[in-house]
Amino acid sequence: MTLYRFKKALSTPTPYLMFFGIALWLGCYYLFVEGWQLPRFNKLPGPVEVITEWLNPNPDWGMSLFTPIYYEHTLVSCRRILIAFAIATGVGVPLGLFMGWSKTFRDYSFPILETLRPIPILAWVPLAILMFSGLETPVIYLATLASLFVTTLNTLLGVDSIDEEYFRAARCLGAKPHHVFMHVVIPGALPFIFTGLQISIGVAWFSLVAAEMVSGEFGLGYLIVDAYMNVTYVIMVIGMLTLGFVGWFSAALVRIAGNRMMEWRVRALALEGR
Fold this sequence. Notes:
The protein is an all-alpha fold. The chain contains twelve helices and no strands. The mean pLDDT is 84.
């Protein structure tokens, strides 16, 4: 099945447009920094310098794919994201389902959600440091908090998107409330849930990096700000690119899990030619 999907993808323009977009971005990056040396870009390391250092077994700046410290920073951030994303999903999905299912529960909880949601994640940093001891827990808390709002709101929208006819049909067939919840509400909200989870894990990544910059000791966010403070801009760009690749891969894993759990929807979209 994987090989079939890969061959089918190659028959569409999508992968070629993707590679063209990456090549276009690299070309502009090279021209702005190394080719034309524009005033706003002349202090940045060029793509040739970054890739050479990234793949260098004996890096000039002390970090590359061949140094253990590079993987230590990456794995620390991945572990924090895994914990934060699991907590946000475990709390946010049931919370959003119950908010959409019960009007009374929504009336109590939705104003709280909408009051806290616009507060920037950096505004929570002093409170997180006061509430939690150590350096690890505040970082995970901040990433969880940002991810939680997105997960809850998208799950709520998923329940609201279910056609009322499904509820009437279930009641006419004698379904009890908990049957309606299990067989109508949850499956009907799944597309929105997994769309929200893909957004949620991205939000968790940039919230984690912001938290690591101010209260972390290891991680990609700490690596980026430490490289900036020490004027090692090549390491800074390597950390940013690593963050982009790891974030893209984690979102892809969520998308694959969603497609596996919603094969009925994938088949329906395929029949529609989408």
